[in-house]
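Much of the work behind modern protein science is quiet bookkeeping, done one molecule at a time. The protein below has been through that process, and both of its lines are reproduced in full.


***
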Amino acid sequence: MSAAGFTHCALHVCDLDESIAFYEDYCGLKFVLEHGDGPGRTVWMASPGSEDDFVLVMMGGGARREPDSSDMTHYGFAVSAREDIDAIAKRAEQEGCLHWAPKEFKPPTGYLCAVTDPTGYVIEFSYGQPLGPGAEE
């Protein structure tokens, strides 16, 4: 049997348009495609240049999530500079969606913060992990 490729992650979201705007703005994802309409409307988004490798699939009509601060379930995005973590956290605090304040962890975790998206999913932003921009050499 050949190895399976990890191609997407799919989420039900409360408000699809609000979620699209959040992931474009906070995470830099770009619109890839859309299909369906009404409650079945589905959108694919990806990091620029990764559209053929991995997408975030979002489907409207989802329930609001209410994770507590100890819930480590999250989606991770790497940034290219430590200062980006502080800027994201400051903005998220002002906008009322900061989930974890910036904190330094031992490798391979690095420096990170987390915000909640419009549905309540936790989104981690990290610097210094061995994956993506800002990866330790």
About this structure: The chain has a mean pLDDT of 93. The two ends are 33 Å apart (CA to CA). Strands lie at 8-12, 30-35, 42-46, 55-59, 75-78, 98-105, 110-116, 122-127.
